[in-house]
Amino acid sequence: MFERPDVGERAVLVHIEFSSHGSAMEDLGEFRELVTSAGVEPVAEVTGSRNQPSPRLFVGEGKLEEIRDMAAACEADVVLFNHALSPSQERNIERELKCRVLDRTGVILDIFAQRARTHEGKLQVELAQLEHMSTRLVRGWTHLERQKGGIGLRGPGETQLETDRRLLRERIKAIHKRLEKVRRQRDQGRRARKKADIPTVSLVGYTNAGKSTLFNRITESGVYAADQLFATLDPTLRRLELPDIGPVVIADTVGFIRHLPHKLVEAFRATLEETVQASLLLHVVDCHDERREENMEQVENVLHEIGADEVPFLQVFNKIDLLEDFTPRVERNESGDPVRVWVSAQTGQGMELLFDAIVERLAEDLLHQRVVLGPADGKLRALLHEAGSVLREDYLENGDVAVEIRLQSRDWFQLLSRAGLSTDQVRVEAP
Q1: Rounded CA gap, 112 and 78, in Å?
Q2: Are residues 57 and 87 both part of a single domain?
Q3: Which residue of 143, 152, 261, 270 lies most exposed, with the fewest beta carbons within 10 A?
Q4: Is 208 one of the annotated binding-site residues?
Q5: Cα angle value 165/167/173 (rounded, 5°)
Q6: Is residue 170 part of a domain?
Q7: pLDDT per position as a tens digit, 123-156
Q8: pLDDT-derived band at 82, boundaries 50, 70, 90
Q9: Phi then psi for 44, rounded to 5 degrees?
Protein backbone atom coordinates (compact mmCIF):
# COMPACT_ATOMS: atom_id res chain seq x y z
CA MET A 1 0.00 0.00 0.00
CA PHE A 2 2.76 2.44 0.89
CA GLU A 3 5.83 3.09 -1.28
CA ARG A 4 8.38 2.31 1.37
CA PRO A 5 11.00 -0.35 2.04
CA ASP A 6 9.73 -3.62 3.55
CA VAL A 7 9.88 -3.83 7.32
CA GLY A 8 12.92 -5.74 8.49
CA GLU A 9 13.58 -7.65 11.66
CA ARG A 10 16.40 -5.43 12.92
CA ALA A 11 15.54 -2.23 14.76
CA VAL A 12 17.15 0.78 16.41
CA LEU A 13 15.24 1.88 19.52
CA VAL A 14 14.99 5.57 20.38
CA HIS A 15 14.09 6.81 23.86
CA ILE A 16 14.28 10.48 24.82
CA GLU A 17 13.72 11.87 28.31
CA PHE A 18 11.78 15.12 28.41
CA SER A 19 12.08 17.22 31.55
CA SER A 20 8.71 18.85 30.79
CA HIS A 21 6.98 15.42 30.58
CA GLY A 22 8.64 13.74 33.55
CA SER A 23 9.12 10.62 31.38
CA ALA A 24 10.86 7.80 33.25
CA MET A 25 13.95 6.14 31.78
CA GLU A 26 12.81 2.73 33.01
CA ASP A 27 10.13 2.73 30.30
CA LEU A 28 12.89 1.73 27.92
CA GLY A 29 13.04 -1.75 29.46
CA GLU A 30 9.33 -2.24 28.85
CA PHE A 31 9.67 -0.90 25.30
CA ARG A 32 12.44 -3.44 24.71
CA GLU A 33 10.02 -6.18 25.79
CA LEU A 34 7.33 -4.78 23.49
CA VAL A 35 9.70 -4.80 20.51
CA THR A 36 10.82 -8.37 21.25
CA SER A 37 7.17 -9.43 21.61
CA ALA A 38 6.57 -8.01 18.11
CA GLY A 39 9.22 -10.41 16.78
CA VAL A 40 11.77 -7.68 16.04
CA GLU A 41 15.42 -7.82 17.12
CA PRO A 42 16.62 -4.60 18.83
CA VAL A 43 20.20 -4.14 17.57
CA ALA A 44 20.94 -0.72 19.11
CA GLU A 45 19.50 1.93 21.39
CA VAL A 46 19.75 5.70 21.15
CA THR A 47 18.89 7.69 24.26
CA GLY A 48 19.01 11.36 25.07
CA SER A 49 17.28 14.21 26.86
CA ARG A 50 15.54 17.41 25.80
CA ASN A 51 13.35 20.03 27.41
CA GLN A 52 10.53 19.32 24.96
CA PRO A 53 10.00 17.58 21.58
CA SER A 54 10.88 19.39 18.37
CA PRO A 55 7.64 20.12 16.43
CA ARG A 56 9.18 19.06 13.09
CA LEU A 57 11.52 16.14 13.86
CA PHE A 58 10.69 15.29 17.51
CA VAL A 59 14.46 15.15 18.20
CA GLY A 60 17.21 17.68 17.42
CA GLU A 61 19.34 17.69 14.26
CA GLY A 62 22.36 16.25 16.10
CA LYS A 63 20.36 13.39 17.64
CA LEU A 64 18.80 12.65 14.24
CA GLU A 65 22.30 12.39 12.76
CA GLU A 66 23.25 9.98 15.56
CA ILE A 67 20.19 7.81 14.83
CA ARG A 68 21.00 7.81 11.10
CA ASP A 69 24.60 6.73 11.73
CA MET A 70 23.51 4.03 14.19
CA ALA A 71 20.90 2.65 11.77
CA ALA A 72 23.48 2.55 8.97
CA ALA A 73 26.18 0.92 11.15
CA CYS A 74 23.80 -1.78 12.42
CA GLU A 75 22.11 -2.26 9.05
CA ALA A 76 18.76 -1.66 10.73
CA ASP A 77 15.59 -1.75 8.62
CA VAL A 78 13.35 0.14 11.00
CA VAL A 79 13.67 2.83 13.70
CA LEU A 80 11.26 2.50 16.63
CA PHE A 81 10.45 5.45 18.91
CA ASN A 82 9.31 4.84 22.49
CA HIS A 83 6.97 7.82 22.14
CA ALA A 84 3.83 8.87 20.30
CA LEU A 85 4.83 10.69 17.09
CA SER A 86 2.52 12.97 15.14
CA PRO A 87 1.92 11.98 11.47
CA SER A 88 4.04 14.91 10.23
CA GLN A 89 6.92 14.06 12.61
CA GLU A 90 6.85 10.42 11.47
CA ARG A 91 6.85 11.50 7.83
CA ASN A 92 9.68 14.02 8.30
CA ILE A 93 11.88 11.54 10.22
CA GLU A 94 11.30 8.87 7.55
CA ARG A 95 12.31 11.33 4.84
CA GLU A 96 15.53 12.17 6.73
CA LEU A 97 16.47 8.59 7.71
CA LYS A 98 15.38 6.92 4.45
CA CYS A 99 13.95 3.97 6.38
CA ARG A 100 10.72 2.89 8.05
CA VAL A 101 9.84 4.70 11.29
CA LEU A 102 7.26 3.51 13.83
CA ASP A 103 6.17 4.98 17.15
CA ARG A 104 5.09 3.15 20.32
CA THR A 105 1.45 2.97 19.18
CA GLY A 106 2.51 1.41 15.87
CA VAL A 107 4.50 -1.29 17.71
CA ILE A 108 1.55 -2.13 20.00
CA LEU A 109 -0.80 -2.28 17.01
CA ASP A 110 1.61 -4.64 15.24
CA ILE A 111 1.65 -6.99 18.25
CA PHE A 112 -2.15 -6.91 18.42
CA ALA A 113 -2.37 -7.71 14.69
CA GLN A 114 -0.13 -10.76 15.20
CA ARG A 115 -1.98 -12.08 18.26
CA ALA A 116 -5.65 -11.63 17.32
CA ARG A 117 -7.22 -15.06 16.80
CA THR A 118 -11.01 -14.67 16.79
CA HIS A 119 -13.04 -12.85 14.15
CA GLU A 120 -13.98 -10.20 16.72
CA GLY A 121 -10.37 -9.70 17.80
CA LYS A 122 -9.25 -9.25 14.19
CA LEU A 123 -12.02 -6.71 13.58
CA GLN A 124 -11.04 -4.73 16.68
CA VAL A 125 -7.36 -4.68 15.66
CA GLU A 126 -8.22 -3.69 12.09
CA LEU A 127 -10.38 -0.83 13.37
CA ALA A 128 -7.57 0.48 15.58
CA GLN A 129 -5.08 0.17 12.69
CA LEU A 130 -7.33 1.96 10.20
CA GLU A 131 -8.07 4.82 12.60
CA HIS A 132 -4.34 5.15 13.32
CA MET A 133 -3.56 5.00 9.60
CA SER A 134 -6.23 7.50 8.53
CA THR A 135 -4.16 10.43 9.81
CA ARG A 136 -1.03 9.12 8.09
CA LEU A 137 -2.34 8.41 4.59
CA VAL A 138 -0.71 11.45 3.01
CA ARG A 139 2.70 9.93 3.68
CA GLY A 140 1.97 6.86 1.56
CA TRP A 141 0.08 8.50 -1.30
CA THR A 142 2.06 11.69 -2.02
CA HIS A 143 2.67 10.51 -5.59
CA LEU A 144 -1.11 10.30 -6.13
CA GLU A 145 -2.19 13.64 -4.71
CA ARG A 146 -2.82 15.10 -8.17
CA GLN A 147 -5.62 14.15 -10.56
CA LYS A 148 -4.72 12.03 -13.57
CA GLY A 149 -4.35 13.80 -16.91
CA GLY A 150 -4.37 12.70 -20.51
CA ILE A 151 -7.05 11.88 -23.04
CA GLY A 152 -10.22 10.56 -21.44
CA LEU A 153 -8.98 11.36 -17.94
CA ARG A 154 -9.28 15.14 -17.82
CA GLY A 155 -11.95 16.95 -15.87
CA PRO A 156 -13.20 17.15 -12.29
CA GLY A 157 -12.79 14.17 -10.02
CA GLU A 158 -11.32 13.20 -6.66
CA THR A 159 -7.61 12.64 -6.18
CA GLN A 160 -6.36 9.17 -5.32
CA LEU A 161 -5.75 10.38 -1.76
CA GLU A 162 -9.38 11.51 -1.45
CA THR A 163 -10.58 8.19 -2.91
CA ASP A 164 -8.51 6.27 -0.43
CA ARG A 165 -9.70 8.35 2.52
CA ARG A 166 -13.30 7.74 1.43
CA LEU A 167 -12.72 3.96 1.16
CA LEU A 168 -11.06 4.01 4.57
CA ARG A 169 -14.01 5.85 6.14
CA GLU A 170 -16.43 3.35 4.60
CA ARG A 171 -14.42 0.39 5.92
CA ILE A 172 -14.24 1.94 9.42
CA LYS A 173 -18.02 2.48 9.34
CA ALA A 174 -18.59 -1.16 8.29
CA ILE A 175 -16.35 -2.49 11.09
CA HIS A 176 -18.16 -0.29 13.66
CA LYS A 177 -21.46 -1.85 12.52
CA ARG A 178 -20.14 -5.40 12.85
CA LEU A 179 -18.62 -4.67 16.27
CA GLU A 180 -21.94 -3.17 17.37
CA LYS A 181 -23.56 -6.51 16.45
CA VAL A 182 -20.92 -8.32 18.55
CA ARG A 183 -21.61 -5.90 21.43
CA ARG A 184 -25.35 -6.64 21.24
CA GLN A 185 -24.65 -10.39 21.28
CA ARG A 186 -22.42 -9.99 24.34
CA ASP A 187 -25.09 -7.88 26.04
CA GLN A 188 -27.61 -10.63 25.38
CA GLY A 189 -25.32 -13.23 26.96
CA ARG A 190 -24.70 -10.97 29.97
CA ARG A 191 -28.43 -10.31 30.40
CA ALA A 192 -29.11 -14.06 30.31
CA ARG A 193 -26.46 -14.63 32.99
CA LYS A 194 -27.87 -11.79 35.08
CA LYS A 195 -31.39 -13.21 34.76
CA ALA A 196 -30.08 -16.60 35.89
CA ASP A 197 -28.24 -14.83 38.75
CA ILE A 198 -24.84 -16.13 37.62
CA PRO A 199 -22.03 -13.86 38.90
CA THR A 200 -19.12 -12.95 36.59
CA VAL A 201 -15.54 -12.76 37.86
CA SER A 202 -13.26 -10.87 35.45
CA LEU A 203 -9.45 -11.01 35.51
CA VAL A 204 -7.75 -7.67 34.89
CA GLY A 205 -4.18 -6.50 35.28
CA TYR A 206 -1.02 -5.24 33.66
CA THR A 207 0.16 -7.15 30.63
CA ASN A 208 2.28 -10.23 31.50
CA ALA A 209 1.09 -10.27 35.14
CA GLY A 210 0.07 -13.93 34.78
CA LYS A 211 -3.68 -13.58 34.15
CA SER A 212 -3.96 -16.40 31.60
CA THR A 213 -1.83 -18.74 33.73
CA LEU A 214 -4.08 -17.99 36.71
CA PHE A 215 -7.17 -18.44 34.51
CA ASN A 216 -5.90 -21.86 33.41
CA ARG A 217 -5.14 -22.82 37.02
CA ILE A 218 -8.62 -21.76 38.25
CA THR A 219 -10.65 -23.26 35.38
CA GLU A 220 -8.33 -26.12 34.36
CA SER A 221 -8.50 -24.97 30.74
CA GLY A 222 -5.82 -24.63 28.08
CA VAL A 223 -5.87 -20.92 27.19
CA TYR A 224 -2.66 -19.73 25.51
CA ALA A 225 -0.29 -18.31 28.12
CA ALA A 226 3.27 -17.11 27.53
CA ASP A 227 5.90 -14.95 29.19
CA GLN A 228 5.39 -12.07 26.78
CA LEU A 229 3.41 -8.85 26.51
CA PHE A 230 -0.15 -9.12 25.17
CA ALA A 231 -0.24 -12.92 24.93
CA THR A 232 -4.04 -12.65 25.38
CA LEU A 233 -6.20 -10.44 23.16
CA ASP A 234 -9.46 -12.31 22.82
CA PRO A 235 -11.65 -12.67 25.93
CA THR A 236 -12.27 -16.22 27.11
CA LEU A 237 -15.19 -17.22 29.34
CA ARG A 238 -15.41 -20.41 31.42
CA ARG A 239 -18.09 -21.67 33.80
CA LEU A 240 -17.03 -22.77 37.26
CA GLU A 241 -18.84 -24.22 40.30
CA LEU A 242 -17.98 -22.60 43.65
CA PRO A 243 -19.11 -23.88 47.07
CA ASP A 244 -22.02 -21.87 48.55
CA ILE A 245 -22.15 -19.73 45.39
CA GLY A 246 -22.98 -22.23 42.64
CA PRO A 247 -22.16 -21.50 38.97
CA VAL A 248 -19.81 -18.57 38.27
CA VAL A 249 -18.46 -17.29 34.94
CA ILE A 250 -14.72 -16.47 34.89
CA ALA A 251 -13.50 -14.07 32.15
CA ASP A 252 -9.89 -13.62 30.99
CA THR A 253 -9.28 -10.22 29.34
CA VAL A 254 -6.61 -8.27 27.46
CA GLY A 255 -3.82 -6.81 29.62
CA PHE A 256 -3.20 -3.09 30.10
CA ILE A 257 0.01 -1.13 29.62
CA ARG A 258 1.40 2.37 30.20
CA HIS A 259 0.13 4.94 27.71
CA LEU A 260 -2.24 2.40 26.15
CA PRO A 261 -3.35 4.14 22.92
CA HIS A 262 -6.81 5.61 23.33
CA LYS A 263 -7.89 4.16 19.97
CA LEU A 264 -7.10 0.68 21.25
CA VAL A 265 -9.23 1.20 24.35
CA GLU A 266 -12.06 2.37 22.05
CA ALA A 267 -11.61 -0.57 19.65
CA PHE A 268 -11.60 -3.11 22.48
CA ARG A 269 -14.58 -1.59 24.27
CA ALA A 270 -16.80 -4.60 23.40
CA THR A 271 -14.23 -6.88 25.00
CA LEU A 272 -13.66 -4.65 28.00
CA GLU A 273 -17.38 -4.48 28.73
CA GLU A 274 -16.97 -7.94 30.29
CA THR A 275 -14.96 -6.06 32.90
CA VAL A 276 -17.49 -3.25 33.39
CA GLN A 277 -20.39 -5.67 33.90
CA ALA A 278 -18.51 -8.06 36.23
CA SER A 279 -19.67 -8.86 39.78
CA LEU A 280 -16.04 -8.98 40.98
CA LEU A 281 -12.68 -8.04 39.44
CA LEU A 282 -9.55 -10.03 40.21
CA HIS A 283 -6.75 -7.46 39.80
CA VAL A 284 -3.75 -9.68 39.05
CA VAL A 285 -0.40 -8.10 39.98
CA ASP A 286 3.12 -9.37 39.29
CA CYS A 287 4.44 -9.01 42.85
CA HIS A 288 8.01 -9.68 41.67
CA ASP A 289 8.02 -6.64 39.35
CA GLU A 290 9.87 -3.64 40.77
CA ARG A 291 7.31 -1.33 39.13
CA ARG A 292 4.26 -3.08 40.49
CA GLU A 293 2.87 0.04 42.21
CA GLU A 294 3.08 2.04 38.96
CA ASN A 295 1.58 -0.87 36.99
CA MET A 296 -1.34 -1.07 39.45
CA GLU A 297 -1.90 2.66 39.01
CA GLN A 298 -1.96 2.29 35.21
CA VAL A 299 -4.55 -0.51 35.45
CA GLU A 300 -6.71 1.64 37.75
CA ASN A 301 -6.48 4.51 35.22
CA VAL A 302 -7.75 2.30 32.37
CA LEU A 303 -10.52 0.88 34.60
CA HIS A 304 -11.56 4.46 35.33
CA GLU A 305 -11.49 5.27 31.61
CA ILE A 306 -13.84 2.38 30.71
CA GLY A 307 -16.12 3.03 33.70
CA ALA A 308 -15.19 -0.08 35.72
CA ASP A 309 -13.68 1.68 38.74
CA GLU A 310 -16.87 1.17 40.79
CA VAL A 311 -16.82 -2.64 40.42
CA PRO A 312 -15.69 -4.47 43.63
CA PHE A 313 -12.19 -5.91 43.23
CA LEU A 314 -9.84 -8.34 44.94
CA GLN A 315 -6.08 -7.94 44.44
CA VAL A 316 -4.23 -11.13 43.51
CA PHE A 317 -0.47 -10.77 44.04
CA ASN A 318 0.87 -13.44 41.68
CA LYS A 319 4.34 -15.03 41.16
CA ILE A 320 5.24 -15.49 44.85
CA ASP A 321 7.35 -18.46 43.66
CA LEU A 322 9.88 -15.83 42.47
CA LEU A 323 10.16 -14.37 46.00
CA GLU A 324 12.40 -15.98 48.60
CA ASP A 325 10.73 -17.96 51.43
CA PHE A 326 7.29 -16.50 50.84
CA THR A 327 4.15 -18.37 51.84
CA PRO A 328 0.63 -17.72 50.49
CA ARG A 329 -1.56 -15.52 52.65
CA VAL A 330 -4.72 -13.41 52.68
CA GLU A 331 -4.75 -9.75 53.75
CA ARG A 332 -7.99 -8.27 55.11
CA ASN A 333 -9.34 -4.76 55.66
CA GLU A 334 -10.68 -3.29 58.91
CA SER A 335 -14.08 -4.93 58.31
CA GLY A 336 -12.45 -8.35 57.97
CA ASP A 337 -13.11 -8.65 54.21
CA PRO A 338 -10.32 -10.15 52.06
CA VAL A 339 -8.65 -7.47 49.92
CA ARG A 340 -5.42 -9.14 48.76
CA VAL A 341 -4.33 -12.76 48.21
CA TRP A 342 -0.70 -13.79 47.62
CA VAL A 343 -0.49 -16.79 45.24
CA SER A 344 1.55 -18.48 42.53
CA ALA A 345 -0.48 -19.43 39.47
CA GLN A 346 2.54 -21.28 38.09
CA THR A 347 2.95 -23.68 41.03
CA GLY A 348 -0.60 -23.57 42.40
CA GLN A 349 0.42 -22.19 45.82
CA GLY A 350 -2.39 -20.32 47.57
CA MET A 351 -5.16 -21.42 45.18
CA GLU A 352 -7.38 -22.66 48.04
CA LEU A 353 -7.00 -19.30 49.79
CA LEU A 354 -7.94 -17.53 46.55
CA PHE A 355 -11.07 -19.66 46.08
CA ASP A 356 -12.10 -18.98 49.69
CA ALA A 357 -11.54 -15.23 49.22
CA ILE A 358 -13.58 -15.18 45.97
CA VAL A 359 -16.43 -17.07 47.67
CA GLU A 360 -16.28 -14.69 50.63
CA ARG A 361 -16.40 -11.60 48.39
CA LEU A 362 -19.21 -12.96 46.20
CA ALA A 363 -21.18 -14.29 49.16
CA GLU A 364 -21.81 -10.96 50.83
CA ASP A 365 -25.55 -11.83 50.77
CA LEU A 366 -24.96 -15.37 52.05
CA LEU A 367 -27.46 -16.55 54.63
CA HIS A 368 -26.33 -18.77 57.51
CA GLN A 369 -29.33 -19.56 59.68
CA ARG A 370 -31.29 -22.21 61.56
CA VAL A 371 -34.76 -23.03 60.26
CA VAL A 372 -37.35 -24.93 62.30
CA LEU A 373 -39.51 -27.08 60.00
CA GLY A 374 -42.70 -28.87 60.95
CA PRO A 375 -44.05 -32.13 59.47
CA ALA A 376 -45.95 -30.12 56.82
CA ASP A 377 -42.72 -28.46 55.58
CA GLY A 378 -41.27 -31.64 54.07
CA LYS A 379 -41.08 -30.17 50.56
CA LEU A 380 -38.88 -27.24 51.69
CA ARG A 381 -36.66 -29.64 53.64
CA ALA A 382 -36.26 -31.85 50.56
CA LEU A 383 -35.42 -28.82 48.38
CA LEU A 384 -32.79 -27.61 50.88
CA HIS A 385 -31.12 -31.04 50.79
CA GLU A 386 -31.31 -31.10 46.99
CA ALA A 387 -29.56 -27.71 46.84
CA GLY A 388 -26.78 -28.99 49.16
CA SER A 389 -27.44 -26.18 51.63
CA VAL A 390 -27.97 -28.27 54.79
CA LEU A 391 -25.07 -28.21 57.27
CA ARG A 392 -26.78 -29.99 60.17
CA GLU A 393 -30.14 -31.39 61.30
CA ASP A 394 -31.50 -31.79 64.85
CA TYR A 395 -34.81 -33.47 65.76
CA LEU A 396 -36.77 -31.63 68.43
CA GLU A 397 -38.96 -33.26 71.10
CA ASN A 398 -42.22 -32.00 69.54
CA GLY A 399 -41.39 -33.70 66.18
CA ASP A 400 -40.09 -30.60 64.40
CA VAL A 401 -36.68 -30.55 62.69
CA ALA A 402 -34.13 -27.75 63.25
CA VAL A 403 -32.07 -27.43 60.04
CA GLU A 404 -28.86 -25.36 59.92
CA ILE A 405 -28.47 -24.03 56.38
CA ARG A 406 -26.08 -21.84 54.38
CA LEU A 407 -27.00 -20.47 50.93
CA GLN A 408 -27.39 -17.29 48.89
CA SER A 409 -30.38 -15.16 49.95
CA ARG A 410 -31.76 -15.24 46.37
CA ASP A 411 -31.64 -19.07 46.42
CA TRP A 412 -33.43 -19.11 49.80
CA PHE A 413 -36.33 -17.03 48.46
CA GLN A 414 -36.50 -19.18 45.30
CA LEU A 415 -36.73 -22.39 47.38
CA LEU A 416 -39.43 -20.86 49.59
CA SER A 417 -41.40 -19.94 46.46
CA ARG A 418 -41.04 -23.46 45.02
CA ALA A 419 -42.21 -24.93 48.34
CA GLY A 420 -45.26 -22.61 48.26
CA LEU A 421 -44.27 -20.85 51.50
CA SER A 422 -43.76 -17.22 52.50
CA THR A 423 -41.09 -15.91 54.89
CA ASP A 424 -43.56 -15.44 57.74
CA GLN A 425 -44.62 -19.12 57.53
CA VAL A 426 -41.10 -20.34 58.46
CA ARG A 427 -39.46 -19.96 61.87
CA VAL A 428 -35.87 -18.70 61.45
CA GLU A 429 -33.31 -18.58 64.28
CA ALA A 430 -29.64 -17.68 64.59
CA PRO A 431 -27.40 -20.75 63.99
Answers
A1: 19
A2: yes
A3: 152
A4: yes
A5: 100
A6: no
A7: 877 888 887 777 776 544 444 444 455 555 444 5
A8: confident
A9: -160, 160
Q: Is 286 annotated as a binding residue?
A: no
The span from the CA of 84 to the CA of 104, in Å, is: 6
For residue 255, say whether it is annotated as part of any ligand binding site: yes
- CATH code for the domain in which residue 343 is found: 3.40.50.300
Q: Which of the two residues, 232 and 236, has the higher pLDDT score?
A: 236
Residues 6+ away with beta carbon under 8 Å from 335: none
Domain span at 292: 196-363
Q: Is 205 annotated as a binding residue?
A: yes
Q: Does 371 share its domain with 228?
A: no
The closest of 4, 2, 24, 5 to 15, measured between CA atoms, is 24
Ligand-binding site membership of 210 (annotated): yes
For residue 45, the cross-strand partners are: 13
CATH number of residue 68's parent domain = 3.40.50.11060
Q: Number of folded domains in the chain?
A: 3
Q: Is 202 annotated as a binding residue?
A: no
Q: Where a domain ends, among 76, 102, 128?
A: 102
Distance of alpha carbon 44 from the chain centroid:
31
Question: What is the chain's alpha carbon radius of gyration, rounded to the nearest angstrom?
Answer: 28
Instruction: Judge whether 212 is annotated as a binding position.
Output: yes
Same domain, 324 and 425: no
Q: Where are the beta strands (DSSP E) in 75-135?
A: 78-81, 100-102
Q: Do residues 286 and 356 both lie within one domain? A: yes
Shared-domain flag, residues 379 and 339 = no
CATH number of the domain that residue 424 is part of? 3.30.70.240
Listed in sequence order, the residues at least 6 apart from 263 whose beta carbon sits closer than 8 Å to its beta carbon are: 105, 128, 131, 132
Does the annotation place 38 within a ligand binding site? Answer: no
Is the pTM higher than 0.85? The answer reads: no
